[in-house]
Write a structure and sequence with these properties.
By secondary structure, this protein is of the alpha+beta class. The chain is built from five helices and five strands. Helix content is 44%, strand content 18%. It is globular and about 40 Å long.
Length: 176
C-alpha cells in the first residue's frame, strides 16, 4: 500500500474552513467543528486529507443529519469502531474525514488531545513525524500497515498528554 505523505500545505487551514461550512450547511448549523489530524499541525507532513472532529449532542443528532450529509457526497466509511465517521472522496481519493463525537466525551477525545499536545510540544511533534515516515515506508514494503506503524508512538504521546490533563491512559487503537 502506498501512503503519500506530503509537506505541510499552508492551504490546509482554508480547506478546513471550507469543510466546516459544508458540514454545517448539510448537517447541523450549530455543530462545533475542529481541525484535527496532522494537517492541523503547522509544519507537519501529512496525507493530504483534512480530518475534522464534529461535536454532536448524541447519536440521534448524527442520525437526524446523516441524509443531508450523504446528499452532499459524504459516506459512512471507516474501520473506526469508537465513534461515527464519514468520508468524502474526490477523484477516487479521500480528501476529508469527519469524526463525530458526542458532547459527553468531547473533552476526552484522543484526536483533540493529540492535536493540542503536538501544537505545544515540538519534541513530540518531531517524534510523531519520524514515526509517520517510518510507518509509511513499512507500509510500502508491506511489512506493516501505516496505522499500525504509528500506534506505539501515538500511545506514548497520548499517555503523556492525558496524564497532564489528569486523565487515565486508554488504548488509542480503535479500528476493527
Amino acid at each position: 500500500m502506498t501512503v503519500a505523505l506530503v509537506p505541510y500545505d499552508p492551504a490546509w487551514p482554508s480547506l478546513f474552513r471550507q469543510t466546516v461550512v459544508e458540514l454545517r450547511a448539510h448537517g447541523n448549523p450549530g455543530w462545533v467543528i475542529e481541525h484535527i489530524g496532522s494537517t492541523a499541525i503547522r509544519g507537519m507532513s501529512a496525507k493530504p486529507v483534512i480530518d475534522v472532529a464534529v461535536r454532536i449532542a448524541d447519536d440521534s443528532d448524527f442520525v437526524a443529519h446523516r441524509a443531508g450529509l450523504e446528499a452532499a457526497g459524504w459516506r459512512i466509511g471507516s474501520a473506526v469502531r469508537a465513534h461515527r465517521v464519514m468520508i468524502f472522496v474526490e477523484d477516487g481519493e479521500r480528501t476529508r474525514i469527519a469524526h463525530f463525537f458526542e458532547t459527553a466525551s468531547w473533552d476526552r477525545v484522543n484526536q483533540r488531545i493529540l492535536r493540542d499536545w503536538l501544537r505545544t510540544h515540538p519534541e513530540d511533534a518531531e517524534l510523531y513525524e519520524r514515526a509517520k515516515h517510518a510507518a509509511a515506508m513499512a507500509a510500502q514494503r508491506g511489512t506493516a500497515s501505516y496505522n499500525d506503524g504509528k500506534t506505539v508512538t501515538i500511545q506514548v504521546i497520548i499517555d503523556r498528554a492525558r496524564a497532564e490533563r489528569g486523565l487515565p491512559p486508554v488504548p488509542v487503537s480503535d479500528k476493527r
